[in-house]
Amino acid sequence: MENYTMEGRTYRYYGQEAPLYPFGYGLSYTTFRYRDLVLSPPVLPICANLSVSVVLENTGQRDGEEVVQLYLQWEQSSVPVPRWQLVAFRRVAVPAGRETKLSFQVAAEQRAVWAQDWRLEPGTFTLFAGGQQPGQRTQAPSEVLSAQFTVTGAARPLRGC
To answer: Which of the residues 6, 32, 92, 100 has an alpha carbon 20 to 30 A from that of 157?
Structure first.
């Protein structure tokens, strides 16, 4: 095998076509609402980690569990990258009518791209938080929030951080 590209071979590299039942799709006996997605800091140095917080509210009549998922999207990259990449997830139990604030850490390594070695590149990124993948055709009954952040500095090998 000489062609190791994943283009057209896995859901992460299908271009604009989304899978019919993507990761995170499923049934629930309650509904959830996401709000107050905060990225800190919104502008960070090339080797820094990103802190993320989001509020998850159970708006239904029953207690329930939600798998909160964070996806990262590169706005521009020097090499082909996935449409979005799962960078964190957590299963959370939330009683009916209650809310919880969740905190995540997105490490610099999770922004690295493969260009003969793992490299960190500056630029603008979008982070998605929700109970499903962003841009789904078949949607679960919860939304996906998004926010952008910027990475500054010169591109460098990951091992240089």
So the answer is: 6
